[in-house]
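### Sample
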Amino acid sequence: MAVARPAVYKRVCTQNFKYILAGMVPVWGVLTIVAAGVSVIGADGDRVVGTRHCAIITSTSRWYATFHFTFIVLAYVIAFVSTLVVWATRRVMTNLTKSKFGSQDDKLGMILAMSGTSIVLLASPAVVMLTIRWDITEWGDIEVAVTYAMPGFLSVVNTIIAFRFRKELRAQFYHLLGIKSTHKKSEPSMFTRTTLTTRRHTTVHHLS
């Protein structure tokens, strides 16, 4: 919304609205814990899972376990779609204004690839746990361990990629180590280039 409909975003997502959303985080956490406890009332409370691979599938009902693992993956899907909207909007602005801003060196393609990979890797433990909970198939300890290692592996890979492509991150790292780095003129960030492209498009529209 902030990219495609900035006026609507500014009108709806005020600072007070953001404070309310931040304040709802602990409330949402308490509600989900209560829902997890309520979900085992009835027949689900008598079910015993011998694998003990995950507290969610062993201590909650099927519907709550499905909600839990789906919600985690859905958050990354939304992030991927948001980045895709930014990428598509920038391409349209670039074609209309014939500006150099928003060119392929903005690394949005790399971010899209990282987001897509995150979805796949983070969905793997969810698939394993849900297939166990719904009695679809059984997985051994090795398969479960490998899938649960994927988020940690993803964090390491994302850190390496960010260190490689983000100059400010490297500068901060060198500063913490006390290593002097050659200061160069900083390049505009992706947000800055998007803003400049949007402003140029608005100026061209008014002039025409």
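The radius of gyration is 23 Å. This sample (G-protein coupled receptors family 1 profile domain-containing protein) is used throughout the tutorial notebook.
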